[in-house]
Amino acid sequence: MSLKNKLIYFFQNMLIALFFPAISLYYGIKNGNESQKKIVLFIFFLFYGATIKFSVENDGFRHRENVDTYYQNMDLSEFAGASMKILKFQDSGVGSDDIYRHTISFISGSILGNSLFFFVIVAGVYGFFFLNVLFEIFDRPLTFTYFPLIATGFLLIMHKNIEGVNTVRTWTAMWMLLYGTLKFLKNKKPQYLLFILLTPVVHFGYFILALPVILGIVLKNTPRLAITAFIISMFFSNFNPTNGLAERFENQEIIHKRVENYSVDKKISANAKWERIESRGNQRFYNKLQSFGLHRYAFSFIIISVYFFAIRQSNTNKSLIISLFVIGVFIHAFSNFSWFIDQVSGRSRVIGEVFILMSLFLLLRDTTIYFKNIYFRWSLNFYLALMIPFAIWNISRWFDHPSFFSFILPGIVITNPDLNFSLKELLKFIIPI
Predict the structure, then answer these.
(1) Which end of the chain has fewer CB atoms at under 10 Å, N or C?
(2) CA nearest to 352, candidates 228, 225, 181, 202
(3) Are the C-beta atoms of residues 61 and 54 closer than 8 Å to each other?
(4) Report field, pTM of the whole predicted structure over 0.85
């Protein structure tokens, strides 16, 4: 499609989506080519951002409130002054501690004059990277389907899907990181590395979180080294270098606050973790198992299984599969090594899980190892069984924030937000539980 035809198709579907986003989405996916599918899905992200439903305790509510408090009528000199403080890792005084959120807040609050546009822009940026990554992985029709392949693809899509828009920065930067990595591994063009290097602009934590990805790219053909680092990291629980670390950054308020808030003294044992979960009262089983971290053990199991029963045994020459696997394993090792900074460890683990899922999906799609190696087959089936609570938990979370009006007549709540309600609120009304 030419740029002109893409723009015509975009505005045609925007007009339809103003009234019936679900119809635009359905027919675009059913009948469109790859470019048209991307366009209708991107439009859906925009309307998701315009109609997203937050309760007062959600971060998203506070982000929009921050726009109304600090950015309405902010002039350019104030914006520039706060930007310089952020770049020096100092408190900006306007409620934003990174350039990405600061810039979007300024555009939506000062230039466009309405905090509603904050999540429209956030959803648009998130949707661009999210959709391009998925289209890079699902880049051709499946010639043969079987349950583990479909289940792995489903887990990949659900792992950090449209729901990740709500956090604004963390998972936007992750999909940007994934996009740059995938495009570089496929095309070998160095300009795609810029997307990796620019992730700290979206979330400054990626100064650290991008490091294992860069290491994995450099050592992308060394699965033995990656698995060795991962196994060693599983026993790395006694070394904690963060004691007194926060005090070294007293003049950089942002770094000081993050290190102080995210550092932990020691790992919590499995028994102590389960007792803490039980003390919270009645919870659905998938919420308990998610809080316990069952899926983390499942990923550790499948990493070792893929290496010993698939990559090591099959001598596959699929370089992209190996590269994604190696990067994912290095990130998991980094997550284990950085256990003493809770947020860094947890977020890097999620990034590593997406890399592993991409590698696993391509391994199942492009090779016959599942049918040739009984040990790998049973290991994968066991892993997928362990992931069932995680999948249910993800599905349940998906209903928290999407508005009913994301699918039909979004203009109603765009003009009158008080009428908005989420899909979960609708389901509770229809099926009281």
Answers:
(1) C
(2) 181
(3) yes
(4) yes
